[in-house]
Amino acid sequence: MLKSYEEINQAIKNYYSNKNNIKSNIWRNNFHVEMPFGLMNDPNGLCYYDNKFYIFYQWNPFGCEHKTKHWGLVTTADFINFTNPEIVLKPEEWFDKGGCYSGGAYVKDGTLKLFYTGNVKGINNERKSYQCVVDYNKDWLFEKKGVLIDKEPEGYTSQFRDPMIFENNGIYYMVLGVQTKELKGRALIYESKDINRWSFVGELKTDMKDLGYMWECPNLFRVNKDKVAFMFSPQGLKEEEFKHQNIYQSGYVIGELNLDEVFLNNHTEFKEIDMGFDFYAPQVFNHKGKNIMIGWIGMPDKDKEYLSSEYGWMFGMTMPRVLEYKDNAIYQKPLELLKELRESKIVDFKSQYVDNYSIKLDSRTIECNLDLDINNSDNMELKLKFKDEHISISYSKKDEICIVDRNNMELGGKGVRKFKLKIDKSLKMHMFIDNSFIEIYYQDGLETTTLAYFPKSDDFEIEIKNKVKINKLQIWSLRRINYVES
Fold first, then answer.
1. C-alpha closest to that of 393 among 463, 475, 469, 317
2. Contacts 24+ apart (CB under 8 A), 303-308
3. Among the three residues 308, 337, 366, which one is the final residue of a domain in this structure?
4. Which residues are CB-contacts of 23 (< 8 A; sequence separation ≥ 6)?
5. What span is annotated as the signal peptide, if there is one (predicted)?
6. Would 119 be classed as within a structural domain?
7. Which of 46, 86, 288, 425 is least surrounded by Cβ atoms within 10 Å, i.e. has the fewest?
């Protein structure tokens, strides 16, 4: 086990200088960001600065346990070439010695400012939460400026964290996830004229009076001139057949934000942003007018399901997704830059009737764009096969239900995820399949499912069951992202 930062830095250099390390395990992902060792979780401080995308994240570099939380960083201009992971925030001050917890970024006057929660626990496990700020000025030195908010307001517990910053009409606002003394999840709003001194405005009023016991990782962002999305991760929702099937959820409501009254008016019902097994704590940032989201591929309190921990690393990040607002919902699509990952086209055909079609592939590093005609089919099933194991995705036209089933995998998490999916003419699935992560977009991003999987074999086959017309099937092999020293 690594015991010092010197050992960590040397281990990072050694890992990326030996390209065989990437190929040493069949679960090592090729185009998803993950750490060479340790536990990675929430994306933090996502932004575009100095002509690069900055991706910060929670990282315990000392082991695969949820403790000793640092902020790590990779940067990229193209989502193909990344800087080697580096530790930029360490839990070593009086106000963050229990962990540098999640938060956001804001660029002001050429300075990248990072906002995070400093976590401190006492000898009897009592918690104190401090909202803190860090300055970065393009010289790769991150300077902790200390505490901005030293205590939660009256009526709330110390579950008071994850600051995100936005600006409106020349005023800066901070949104924080909290828990009331009655153990209800809520969000609080603070304001500032100079982004350095903050005052409490109030609790964000919504119609969600009983939606879990804690709201984590809040995001407030504009989706058009009149409406904003409030995206957050509530904990403690009751599981139902077609929603809230994970232990914790991430999702959004859309409404009209009145900051004078601290009220989200006329908002929609809470809608999960991803219906898979392994998606949590997303963060959204704006670049060139586009809202871009990255989420954590993982799930709190389910660590035993992620078997890569046996080899020293755990969890990763989703690919960047562009969020588009239409029909009073958020659609997701892959960032356009990701097309540059395509190495070669393996399959490309249209308008073919097939009967139990299958194709064997040499790699589990692919992008697959599939369009299946449903006019003459009541039920459809797609299998991702790994020798004697498989993951199935099935759709019932009559019931308008999609089911993702990984019960036929021997290792890792199992179970099914069901969700409603209305389709007119064809079932569309845009899949990104990596060595242990899968992301699937349905119906042009109306729904998505993200999942981790741990096959025993490198064998890979895609099978389309029954007789069906394939309107389109395109498969590309994808290149491995590249890491270099900064």
1. 463
2. 303/64, 303/66, 305/412, 305/413, 305/452, 306/412, 306/413, 306/452, 307/27, 307/411, 307/412, 307/454, 308/25, 308/27, 308/436, 308/454
3. 337
4. none
5. none
6. yes
7. 288
Out of 337, 368, 393, pick the residue that ends a domain: 337
pLDDT at 22: 64
Whole-number mean pLDDT of the chain? 95
Q: Tell me how far apart the alpha carbons of residues 186 and 157 are, in angstroms, rounded to a whole number.
A: 11
pLDDT at 23: 66
Whether the pLDDT of residue 139 is over 80: the answer is: no
Give yes or no for residue 21 having a pLDDT over 80: no
Helix, strand, or coil (residue 464): strand
Calpha distance 152→161 (Å, rounded): 9
d(C-alpha 413, C-alpha 411), whole Å: 7
Tell whether 322 and 348 lie within a shared domain.
Answer: no
Residues 348 and 331 in one domain: no
As beta bridge partners, residue 166 has 173
Note whether residue 483 is domain-resident. no
Q: What is the mean pLDDT of residues 136-143?
A: 84
Check if the beta carbon of residue 408 is closer than 8 Å to that of residue 430.
Answer: no
Whether 430 and 342 have beta carbons less than 8 Å apart is answered as no
Provide the domain limits for residue 453: 343-477
Predicted TM-score (pTM) of this structure: 0.97
The CATH code of the domain that includes 144 is 2.115.10.20
Q: Copy the structure tokens of residue 297.
A: 């591929």
Cα distance between residue 59 and residue 41, in whole Å? 6
**Distance between CA atoms of 139 and 163, rounded to whole angstroms?**
24
Residues, the chain: 486
- Asked if residues 415 and 406 have their Cβ atoms less than 8 Å apart, the reply is yes
Q: What is the CATH number of the domain that holds 463?
A: 2.60.120.560
Average pLDDT, integer, range 29-44: 97
Give the DSSP H/E element, type plus range, for residue 190. Answer: strand 185-192
Residue 379 pLDDT: 87
Residue 282 within a domain: yes
Do 291 and 437 fall into the same domain?
no
Q: Taking 90 as the threshold, does the pLDDT of residue 124 lie above it?
A: no
Q: Which of 42, 96, 162, 434 is catalytic?
A: 42
Looking at residues 89-96, what average pLDDT do you find?
97
Contact 391, 404 (CB under 8 A): yes
- Distance in angstroms (rounded) separating the CA atoms of residues 466 and 376: 11
> Has residue 223 been placed in a domain?
yes
Which pairing describes strands 482-484 and 81-83: parallel, antiparallel, or unpaired?
Answer: parallel
With a cut of 70, say whether residue 1 has pLDDT above it: no
Q: What is the average pLDDT across 202-219?
A: 97
Asked if 24 and 165 sit in the same domain, the reply is: yes
What share of the chain has pLDDT > 90, as a percent? 90
Residue 194 bears catalytic tag: no
Q: Are 434 and 364 in contact (CB under 8 A)?
A: yes
